[in-house]
Amino acid sequence: MSFQWTQVLVSLRNADPTALTALACLRRSLGFGERLLALRRRVLWELSGPAEADRGMVIERLRLGGELWNPNKEQARIRSAGEPIDLLQLAPAQERSWFHALAWSPERDLDRRPHALRSAIDGERWSLRRGILWSLKIDRQEGTEGRKGAEEAVLCSAPGRGLLVHPQLEDYRWIDGDPSLPWVGEGAAEGLEL
Asked: Taking a C-beta distance cutoff of 8 angstroms, is the pair 47, 128 a contact?
């Protein structure tokens, strides 16, 4: 059986208190100062199912059930496998100062089984995964070495080092270019019997 993948990137319509707090902590407590220009936090859902299934119907059921995003306070961008990476709104490589790190907990974020998904497509194979996408804008004019500076901000490698991803507790990957799907839990491209 062949599978299709769909990504849903969810962000708050208003300011994100978690991202603002993390940005302030990185700037003031961890010494990044104004080198760290901006920080965004978004939830990335990845839905996998049979290629012949009606993806639109499945996403609509999940949306109506409030299981992926709340349209009153969040907005979502949706893309299927094969569509361009503009999901992240990446700048051209020579202008790029945004770095994207995706984190997920293998025990918590892989292979969810929401009620709306089970009832909508009983008996078909589906997988729903969740990750947190951190996007950092680094000022390269102040001596930051791009990705190295982003890694210092993201990875909690020692006390007082990094903040956003705990490698001992979470899996993570850097999103560069246009990686093939899935991004979350890379490599397990089979669905689940729901």
From this structure: yes
| Distances, alpha carbon 101 to alpha carbons 2, 106, 108, 136, 173, in Å | 28, 16, 18, 8, 6
- In Å, how far are 6, 15, 114, 173 from 12, measured between CA atoms? 20, 7, 21, 23
CB-CB contact of 134 with 41 (8 Å): yes
Closest of 125, 55, 134 to residue 98, by C-alpha: 134
Percent with pLDDT over 70 in the chain: 77
User: Which single residue is written with the structure tokens 């708050």?
Assistant: 12
Q: What is the pTM of this model?
A: 0.83
- Tell me: the pLDDT tens digits for 122-165? 545 777 889 999 999 887 654 446 678 788 889 988 777 889 99
Over 95-164, what HEC string results?
HCCEEEEEEECCCCCCCECCHHHHHHCCCCEEEEEEEEEEEEEECHHHCCCCHHHHHHHHECCECCECCC
Cβ proximity of 39 and 134 under 8 Å: yes
Q: What band does 24 get if pLDDT is binned at 50, 70 and 90?
A: very high
